[in-house]
Amino acid sequence: xxxxxxxxxxxxxxxxxxxxxxxxxxxxxxxxxxxxxxxxxxxxxxxxxxxxxxxxxxxxxxxxxxxxxxxxxxxxxxxxxxxxxxxxxxxxxxxxxxxxxxxxxxxxxxxxxxxxxxxxxxxxxxxxxxxxxxxxxxxxxxxxxxxxxxxxxxxxxxxxxxxxxxxxxxxxxxxxxxxxxxxxxxxxxxxxxxxxxxxxxxxxxxxxxxxxxxxxxxxxxxxxxxxxxxxxxxxxxxxxxxxxxxxxxxxxxxxxxxxxxxxxxxxxxxxxxxxxxxxxxxxxxxxxxxxxxxxxxxxxxxxxxxxxxxxxxxxxxxxxxxxxxxxxxxxxxxxxxxxxxxxxxxxxxxxxxxxxxxxxxxxxxxxxxxxxxxxxxxxxxxxxxx
Length: 386
Fold this sequence. Notes:
Blueprint: H1 17-27, H2 32-35, H3 39-49, H4 54-67, H5 71-76, H6 79-86, H7 93-109, H8 117-121, H9 128-138, H10 148-158, H11 167-180, H12 186-199, H13 219-223, E1 239-249, E2 254-258, E3 269-270, E4 273-275, H14 280-289, E5 294-306, E6 310-321, E7 330-331, E8 334-339, H15 341-346, H16 355-358, H17 375-384
Parallel strand pairs: 1-6
Antiparallel strand pairs: 1-4, 2-3, 2-8, 5-6, 7-8
Helix pairs in contact: 1-12, 3-4, 3-9, 9-12, 10-12
């Protein structure tokens, strides 16, 4: 039985390209960015696909390109409009970096994406993987595009004991692939590797080894140890923060505030909130301290949103008040805004973290539930708080 390896071996990668490309040619997915692989299309799709599933990206991709069809339009778009187009994809710095990079491309390259890998790496928000994808797919350069999918499938192929979260390991794998990737089809090779990791050698659940073009010589499959690879350093536990989200509105307006320009969800809009999980009575008291009189209050669904380093566990309330313009105070140092709910659909980007509560704004006026609705849920909440 072969021993687990401590380092990569280029010899074992020399025969991966031919069966991989044959498999890819037979059944590759038809995706909009593959049908028109311009540098701009490849760039936008690769940034959107970071941390997001292909099927979820498709409608965002189409909407984004319909409004921002080229690099110059991206460079010139208002940031709030850009964030609204990005709403629901999360990781909003990705969108901001797209705009920053587009501005650089317009000012330094006349609006045309540079084709050199080294120049792509210098653009905001573009790392080695994205630069490799653009250079290989759009410009035909022999440059690897190594992400988590690629690291996983190669780790299983060779029973590679190296920690794939170690940056030095990624650089080593990039160098190993550079030696074996076909010079005539670098873009297809990179896309085939991504496809194999997304569709067959999947990260969660059972890998579909019987469909794998490398199945006959995959060491982890032969040893029956596929689920043991790749090797990763365990991540630290995320910090849990409890919040109570307040959707406060009168007959015409809803209260929002803009988050600070730096930090988590920078520059996005959100609903006023209270720290911790507040009871109905605590919410009413809080609203009255703001100079408002609650007319109706409804308990909304609980929600959880996971960031890379923390989790928000949220309770929510819809609070109908007599008149919002009498509301006093600020939230997290930011002035409150009173917005027509319809405008949140068009202009004000609300992060997907608050999707459960943003959906409430889509209810027709007059459909709010009278006071007393949700009392059973509130009683359960009160019991949980002791």
